[in-house]
Amino acid sequence: MAKRAGTGLLALLSLTLTAGAAPPAQDAPWWKALPRPVYREIERVAVESPWFEVYRIGPGTTALYEPGHWQEAISYLIEGRDRAVLFDTGLGIGDIKAVVNQLTALPVLVVNSHEHFDHIGGDRQFAEVAVADSPAALARLARGTGNLAGQITSETVWKALPPGFDKARYETPPIRPTRRLSDGERIELGGRTLEVILTPGHTPGSLCLLDRGRRLLFTGDTLYPADLYAHMPESSLADYVRSAARLGALADAVDVVCPGHNEAKAPASLLTRFAQAFAAIARGEAKATPARPGVVRYEAEGIVVLAREPKP
């Protein structure tokens, strides 16, 4: 179910730190639609955590889901024989490292899908953090987020906040990655290889991880089942078009897409529709309709994209 922006949250959508999708404009609170149907079909993994829900996507692959916040951010623990990758560290509200420690004893490398606050919140808890080798992304990470207390409201959070969480001090400090990733680089985990695919568009530092052996694609905010954001100051619609084409070409090599929000498991057919939608936008075949001042909405192949209003 694609989320829509509620009137009480339009200010949140204007923040350049905001990613993901906003609560729907409807009488019932957004969380009344939870749990999403996909989570009735995936094995839930028992962990001690008041904030995270954990689901097994496949052998050595678990999703760490945060349904208590409107972002519904999802991080992924990807394990090999010798080491593991944690793809994103979520909102920084719950203790993600405590959950990871319950799931694996392997050394963990954090790989950030991009530089927005809802995917880097737990980076400070890990010794090794890898990001795309993008000057713009690195500069943004180095600045930190500033105060994020505005993200914690009665409209955005429905679950009890974890003990010890201080809304007034909620922020992500500056991040200085220990590793910069290049397009096509391979991360060896021991019997399992992850291929880095740089996919700028949503942000300059957006990337995906492809596991060809297990036919999994981890997409972060480049692709998830809701409105896609190409309208922020750091977004590039032209880059997004090229990235969508690259991912669409992988549809035959992938069985399962693992997005960064809402649903931890989606079919590979989503990749084809995603690529076709952006191609239609690039060709001028998808009509732009006003979404709010300065922002237009495109829809094609069941994919919705928000973009900056074209200049006359």
Structural summary, described in words:
With 312 residues, the protein is an alpha/beta fold. It has a single domain (7-286), classed as Ribonuclease Z/Hydroxyacylglutathione hydrolase-like (Metallo-beta-lactamase, Chain A). The chain has 6 helices and 18 strands. It has helices at residues 10-13, 96-103, 117-120, 135-143, 237-248, 269-282; strands spanning 43-45, 53-58, 61-65, 74-79, 84-87, 108-111, 129-132, 179-181, 186-188, 193-198, 207-211, 216-220, 228-230, 256-259, 266-267, 289-292, 295-300, 303-308. The strands form 3 sheets. It has an 8-stranded mixed β-sheet, covered by helices on one side. The longest helix has 14 residues, at 269-282. The chain is globular, with a radius of gyration of 18 Å. It starts with 9 loop residues before the first helix and ends with a strand. 46% of the residues are buried. Mean pLDDT is 92; it is low at 1-22.
